[in-house]
Design brief:
The protein has a single domain, classed as TusA-like domain (Translation Initiation Factor IF3), CATH 3.30.110. The protein is 27% helix and 34% strand. It is built from two helices and four strands. The protein is globular, with a radius of gyration of 11 Å. Belongs to the sulfur carrier protein TusA family. Keywords: Transferase. This is Sulfurtransferase TusA family protein.
Length: 77
């Protein structure tokens, strides 16, 4: 998937992935996609990011787990 920016927040605990995501997505234009990589130990990240994206008018368009890393793609609303 084509991403405008990749945010690596591996090793950070909640709420830091959301805090950093909020900052970086603010730098993107509407419709651009942010790819977020989170270490798989933060299993709550899927629900947290989905809820955060919906509440901010953004869209969680895809997520997957690869080699112990959770990856999310969020389209800025």
């Amino acid at each position: 998937m084509d991403s405008a920016k990749v945010l690596d927040v591996k090793g950070l605990a909640c709420p830091m992935p959301i805090v950093k995501t909020r900052k970086v997505i603010g730098e993107l234009d509407s419709g651009q996609v942010l790819e977020i990589e989170i270490h798989a130990t933060d299993k709550g990240a899927k629900n947290d990011l989905a809820a955060w994206a919906a509440s901010g008018g953004h869209e969680l368009i895809q997520h997957e787990e690869e080699h112990g890393v959770l990856k999310f793609w969020i389209k800025k609303g």
